[in-house]
Amino acid sequence: GQVLQKIEDLQLWENTIVVVMSDHGMSLGEHGRAGKSNIQESDHRYWPIYPEIGHVVLMVAGGGIPPGQRLDLIVQPMDIVPTLYDLTGAKAAPPKPFDGVSFADAVLNGDTHHRDVAVSGCHIRTQGANPPRRATTPFLITNRWGYAPVGAFGHPELYDLSIDRLAENDLAADHQAEIDDLHGLFLQH
Question: Which of 4, 32, 40, 102 is most buried, most CB within 10 Å of its CB?
Answer without folding.
Answer: 102
